[in-house]
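Agenda item 2: oxa(dethia)-CoA complex prediction
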Amino acid sequence: MTLQGVKFTGVGAATPSQCLTNAHLSALVDTSDEWIQSRTGIQERHVAAPEQRLVDLASEAAGAALQMAGLEPTAVDLLILATSTPDDLFGTACLVQTRIGAVNAVAFDLTAACSGFLFALVTAAQYLRTGAYRSALVIGGDILSRWVDWGDRRTCILFGDGAGAMVLQSSDVDQLLSFELRSDGRLNEHLTLAFAGTPQTLGENLAIAQGGFAPIAMNGREVYRFAVTQVPEVIEKALHRAGCTVEEIDWLVLHQANQRILDAVAERLGIPQEKVISNVGQCGNTSAASIPLALAAPIQQGHIQSGDLIATAGFGAGLTWGAALFRWQ
Ligand code: UT7
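Presented output:
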């Protein structure tokens, strides 16, 4: 039997135990619980403690996903960690590989900001479809609290930390029905976490920039406008490719950036609220972690069931965005 399809067999999530509430933020910057909740829907977010590392969160999420899939770590062929906030700029995926004991996997990082998990999921699926690998662990994890300007009320209210993971396995039936990925670097300036080095002279007429990054900078209105116009479009493209209708979607799982964005996208597509998965109130925007983090609880609680059709979409810095249509298990 040729196994040229992909099935999704496990999901897991991890968040730091520390909670940052709107009351905490109101003491840090000129904002209020009322403003934050009415503009974003966010009540609290989890933030990593100083000693907590991405490898800790990513490994916890990965372990839970493997357990649900009933897959031994040694059976993982491919491990992709989507992140913009690595513990090590050379890559964090290999640290996760070692921590969880996925000794036979090839592991690497992939960066596409808040679209990272979706891009990694689609990337992993291609390796399985070609028959190169039989099982993949896709992790999205970010600790954006490291890079937020805690004096900037326009951004510090949005972000939280966490990780989520999914297991993909070869299958005779392909449960990834379609995808549509996009990027446009002309819009890069609207959302950045950019290198900001300090010049250092190494010799006469010889200088380099010593490492460092400027905190997250965002043009919120532009990103909002971009999200509510582009996300419905890629979901419609993915539906078209799969030959499916909006009515067939059981669950809409968007990158959890802002409740208003989730509502606006659902409204544009004509998807009723009860099909929209949201944990933005409790987790904020966790970047690459947000899609698997949003999926984990409703799957573990049995709300999302085997065979359900899930439309998912990510969007964020790059700018990058994309959608995928898949059936759970
Ligand atoms: O993961 C990637 C994607 N990122 C996103 O998806 C973010 C997309 N953008 C957004 O979610 C929204 O644009 C925000 C939540 C960031 C901002 O909401 P908004 O309704 O677009 O507000 P705004 O930027 O238009 O600002 C409205 C007002 C401004 O005051 P003035 O200029 O009208 O006097 C801001 O200075 O609200 C002010 N403001 C705040 N006030 C209280 C901005 N941030 C705050 C704040 N508390 N935290």
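Discussion summary: The mean pLDDT is 97.
Owner for follow-up: CH.
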